[in-house]
Amino acid sequence: MDTQLARLHRGAPPQEDSFADNLLEGLAKAPKEIACKYFYDEAGSRLFDAICDLPEYYQTRTETALLARHAGEIAALIEPGAEIVEFGAGSLRKARILLDALDNPRAYTPLDISGDYLAGVVQSLAAEYPTLTLRPMVGDFTGPLDIPTLPDNPRRAGFFPGSTIGNFRPDTALCLLRRMRSGLNGGGLLIGVDLVKDPSRLHAAYNDAAGVTASFNKNLLARANRELGADFDLGAFAHYAPYNAGAQRIEMYLVSLRRQRVSLRGQLFEFAQGEPVHTEDSHKYTIESFREMAARAGFNPRAVWTDEERLFSVHWLESR
Ligand code: AVJ
Predict the structure, then answer these.
(1) Residue 1: pLDDT band by 50, 70, 90 thresholds?
(2) How far apart are CA 279 and CA 37, in angstroms?
(3) Gap from CA of 137 to ligand 1 centroid (Å)
(4) Which of 85, 181, 224, 234 has the smallest number of CB atoms closer than 10 Å to its CB?
């Protein structure tokens, strides 16, 4: 399917092929790390869906409710006939809420590193939205964005829900927002951002009682075993996800419970007892701090919607 999909970056292989490279590189670093974009293979995506349904994980249901509640207002801001560019084809549920509310959307252009995932998205939407042009593009949206313009040059609107922006360090997030802004050709960006709140609430969301987030984290090791023939002992690593209040972010690690050696593609990697592997950051913002960053990226922060408890925010940023 990959070969039939348009590529976001000419010549570059889809990022799903580079898990091995990232792992070999990241495990040779001190401190060790694995990039969080590799969580989402089929098993990982299923685990993430399970996270979204957890009682402790307020983000998905809060954002979905915000989108549904304010869909009319959002549609008016986006204007009729728009091309929606989604950065990372995430939940079809959110995309549908948006597409259903919009006045005569012209095209839906989901960008994702997984060609298989995009194929499924297109298949689900094609029959439902017969007049919508579907333009899936496989590639890493953190790279250059060369999205060809449609012949009738519709106005673009970016869609970046799920607080994925929180996975990037603030300086990188700023660069990414700048890039998105230029890729949108003057169109605005609808973006979901998780908010700073009581640390115990944040802690619970990443340390759920059922252990789903722990399985999600350890899926990186399981994936390495499945795809690359590594021999990680999943029982010999602990999920550890503290809230760093100074940096306003959740940090996720896999911590080696004993001194051990893991073999991967003919290389041996040593883990000391207690040694962490960093797997994810999830930055939290205040409404004000996020609007400030968006302004520094060249956007004009317009509307913002939040829930009664101020758990999550959805922002409409205009280009200026
Ligand atoms: C999808 C990146 C928003 O940071 O909350 C969930 C991923 N990691 N539980 C997040 C995640 C652990 C999630 N994002």
Answers:
(1) very low
(2) 9
(3) 23
(4) 234
